Amino acid sequence: MRRKIKNKTNNDMKNESLNKCYEIILNYNCNAKCLFCSQGSFDKSLNASFSDIAKNIYSAYKKGYRRLGFTGGEPLLRPDIIKIISLAKSIGFSFIRIQTNGIKLVDKKFADQLVDAGLTVCKFSFLSDEAKVHDKLLGVKGAWKKAMLGLKNLKEHKIRVGTNILINKYNFDRLPEIIYFFLEKGISNFVMIYPMYIGSMRENHLKLGVSLYKAKKYFISAIKLMEKSGLSDEILFLNVPPCFLKGHESLSIGLENFNTLVTDPSGIKTDLDENADKAKLRFPLCRTCIFKEKCSGIDKNYVDIWGLPKFSSPDKKKKISSFGKKVFFSDNERC
Q: pTM for this structure?
């Protein structure tokens, strides 16, 4: 059964138009060798041409998209990345985000050029507050130090920064400590990503994997830290069903529409809302869940590895709101 997408009012459609995100995968080649890479078997020589990228950017703006994201592979490896960002800005995009491991941002001149070209948001992929752990998972010695210097370079500009943190055996029980470390470094937006067991992550699941059941109490601890920091709405969880976020179910990404279209280097387009249920499973208990019309279920590959998940259906929705004095300021990044 597919999740039910709610009927939209005129206001919904207006707001949706302003928040629609167009994501372009620029390339598959990378300067890291992540042990968890979901693109492990992809053709690393496949790169979108500049002309195709330009057509997609023009088309996206014409169709009402106002948020633009670039990812890879490692998008900063493209020699024309400055040109691509400049084009997006000239067309009219005022929200331009890039997803990166941050290694190339150690070059301050390059970081400055990205911002000058029009970059407004940078989403890093920090895996730990410890260089040794981060470098091991990325497969590149010195990666953490370079990315941290890159973060410093970008923070000199008025640019929003956030980080994705992939949940694994080396960091799941230290999430609050890791988040606090990066809060102090100026990052205020966090997406906790539970891995899909495909590609290299599937191959290395015994070395890296941790079950949702084992990790869930640390999810809650991380949320409570963000609440105390006055940033309760600046942490989200991807690939984590709401039943593993008791009392904080609304922080599960996917309960509302993604409003995101992704184009890969070969030109194939994927609407995230239309594909949310693919490779997902539901269980008898899901039929009584208050999120049954919104939640897509759990990854089939997760069940292959960990067996049937241990969970209970949420009793009720609980509104999440910030409380207390804001200790850190938000970058409010959403795309």
A: 0.89
